[in-house]
Amino acid sequence: MVTYFNEIYRGLLSLFEGMGVTFKEFIKPTVTVSYPYETLPMCDKFRGHIELIENEDGKPNCIVCMMCQRACPSDCIKITGKKPEGEKKKVLTKYTLDFTRCSLCGSCVESCNFNALEFSKEYNLASTRKEDFYYDLLQRLEDRNK
Ligand code: SF4
Ligand code: SF4
């Protein structure tokens, strides 16, 4: 009989301890978000795919020196540029990134001496289509400025 009541007592004690923990967590501030409806800003050091940096006029800082393309160990970057008539400097006409091959090593960003490349904060990139990871960075920059 004593064992019977002892077990009921221990069961109730355990129940109230559990409810105490639940109640304490219930009144604490929420630390989760309703992903994918809500997202958190990524930390400064987060590396998403690379993105072109623009100047005050909304044009890319890139001067088509090709250093990033050469520095990429995975051959992800393809750049084309042209020299408009009467101009001394080349203008970027296409900057494509094959993100399926990118290891996020950072060699491209490090090799750029013109502050023209940075890592994006993009992380919502799930897709079943490989083609969704081929990026036209110049087009993306233009779309950002629309
Ligand atoms: S290294 Fe910089 S400036 Fe040179 S092509 Fe790449 S992004 Fe453009
Ligand atoms: S982060 Fe590395 S692998 Fe990715 S594009 Fe740049 S150089 Fe290539």
Q: What labels would you give this structure?
A:
single chain; 146 residues; alpha+beta; Alpha-Beta Plaits; two-stranded antiparallel ribbon; 4 helices; 16% strand; binds iron/sulfur cluster
Write up what this structure looks like.
With 146 residues, the chain is an alpha+beta fold. The chain has a domain at 50-144: Alpha-Beta Plaits (2-Layer Sandwich), CATH 3.30.70. 30% of the residues lie in helices and 16% in strands. The chain is built from four helices and five strands, in the order αβαββαββα. β2 and β3 (91-98) form a beta hairpin. The longest helix has 26 residues, at 2-27. The radius of gyration is 27 Å and the shape is elongated. The termini are far apart. It binds iron/sulfur cluster (2 copies). The site of one iron/sulfur cluster has 13 residues, from α2. One iron/sulfur cluster (SF4) binds at residues 62-68, 79, 111-112, 114, 116-117.
Estimate what percentage of residues fall within beta strands.
Answer: 15-25%
Spatial ordering of strands, largest sheet: 2-3-5
Name every ligand kind in the structure: iron/sulfur cluster
Q: Give the C-alpha Rg.
A: 27 Å
At CATH level 3, the topology of the domain at 50-144 is Alpha-Beta Plaits
